[in-house]
Amino acid sequence: MNWCILIPLLVGLISAILGYLLGKLLSKGSENNDEVTILKNKVASLEAALKTCRESKVNLEEDLKLAKSNLTSSFAATTLIPFNADAAKAAFGKKIKENDLKIVEGIGPKIEGLFHNFGINTWKALGEASVEKCQEVLDSGGERYRVHKPTTWPQQAKLAYEGKWEDLVKWQDELDGGK
Prior knowledge:
Elements: H1 3-77, H2 85-92, H3 109-117, H4 123-128, H5 131-140, H6 153-162, H7 165-174
Helix pairs in contact: 6-7
């Protein structure tokens, strides 16, 4: 066999294999470049979304501060209805102390104490309490207080808070022990 022919064939074969492998490597590099470009675009998109989110957060925090400020100012602007002792005395025929829960038909000194234990110390607070809350207060006092029915107590307290003394006296005349 002639070695002179075999050597160029071998060199050609090796060159073909190396060319093939180099082509594969270089084409993968361009695929990687495409992936890098795609990932860079995704990162840019996410950074833009993050920036928008941060701006939105700042706006929301400013809105929250404004809302708190408005709430505080509106709460401060809420005026309490002043207590008119003379009008209460005229309606009831006796001196009435402001926020005396015993003015409510069905509430005596011990029940008033139970309400005070629950932080209900004013006619306004009792007027805003639910009947269920009043029953919870009574239940906390034990068995002897469960016979009371506080269904009208919040409404009576609201009338007292609002200074509607004649309406309260008229209604209490119709009630039987606050029921």
